[in-house]
Amino acid sequence: MDPFKLIILSTLVYILCFENIGKLVEGRAHYHKKKGSGSSQTQPSSPAPADNDQTPPYSPVPGTRPVVPSDPYPYPYPDPSPAQGGPCIFDVTSFGAVGDGSTDDTAAFRSAWKAACAAGWSVVHVPSSGKFMITSTIFSGPCKPGIVLQVDGILMPPDGPECWPETDSKRQWVQKDQHCLDHAIAQLFFMSKNIELSGLRIQNSPQFHIKFDGCDGVLINKLQINSPKYSPNTDGIHVENSKNVAIYNALIANGDDCISIGPGSSNVDIQGVVCDHSHGISIGSLGVHNSEACVSNITVRGALIKNSDNGLRIKTWQGGSGSVSDISFQDIQMENNTNSIIIDQYYCLTKACRNQTSAVYLSGVTYRNIKGTYNNVQSAPIHFACSDTVPCTNITMSEVELLPSQGQLVDDPFCWNSYGIQETLTIPPIDCLQDGMPESLQEVVACCQ
Q1: What is the pTM of this model?
Q2: Catalytic residue numbers?
Q3: pLDDT 10s digits, 274-323
Q4: β-bridge partners, 293
Q5: What are the angstrom distances between the C-alpha of 205 and each of 13, 98, 173, 255, 256?
């Protein structure tokens, strides 16, 4: 096992709620010294990446990275000399963690976190020599700035419900064979600021692998997620009520949305992502239960989406309100997907959804340099199903070329109440896109402030 890779096997859940955390990192070499003492500690190792690490190297386009709130400590953190001192090391084994794969190490992790949180400018270190079993837990704040959670070993869950402590709610966990609907999330970051995740591997989460809710300033880099193709609700990365989020160089293979952007999200930059056997990159679903949803300034570029049910999708429920604006999909390669480009404002999980007049307003969606293949021989790879009463406006199509992986070209894209322009000819042609703007738009649109 390659160190510096966090592995969540099956059903591990932990929640982090804190402010001004420094990083969750793959590890770096530092000189370390105990706070308040002159004795140095052995620094965590820094091995080279594994040969099978296929995360695509991708340099973010200059000037596109979201502005992250400032951290009181310099970033990236300097490597101090012994004379300057360095961050305190809180090794979980010093707090009682065993790392034998069977002993419950949850209390030791909580204690190490609590000490680092109070000290600031600290590293919670999980050594490479162990497999540490922890149950569902919460690492809470607020913390002093400059906290690093460095995972060189393996984090793993108990074997199953029979092994879980009595203090754990078994309703926090999903037993897929019983189709439980509880959302067990491998990692949840809630109301947190200044977060970086780098070099992590997460495997077989019961549902969402990583979720950010109410966060500001998130950088994700060199992340690997893997779960089976038919694992339900296993979204790779889910973002909602969060802003200033950057997701770079991720390799995600899962059974639901590769990346999903929920309500309240803004200023999200996604670059260099590979999605395999997933539901593609989705904005939504939005507007469920007649709710307001506001999403803006989302950029996806340099991505590869392959063997997936969907490619690029925006999905909203009837009856919602709010708006989706300033969305850019650029330089995307498609390989053998079923549906390539979709706007679906009639999203529904059952056949019982009733028609409603209000809808989330979609405007300013750009598809540029989207090329590749699709495997659906019954319908065209482009599908714009906008609301009857709230049209989609300012859709831009440029250099879109989608061809069948086999068979003949399906050349009849679907458009409903969709307005925009073709900057270049598309394949298949999308002549159904209407020019200009609808006359009655202002009467029915309730935009986000």
Answers
A1: 0.82
A2: 256, 279
A3: 999 999 999 999 999 999 999 999 999 999 999 999 999 999 999 999 99
A4: 322
A5: 8, 24, 10, 11, 12
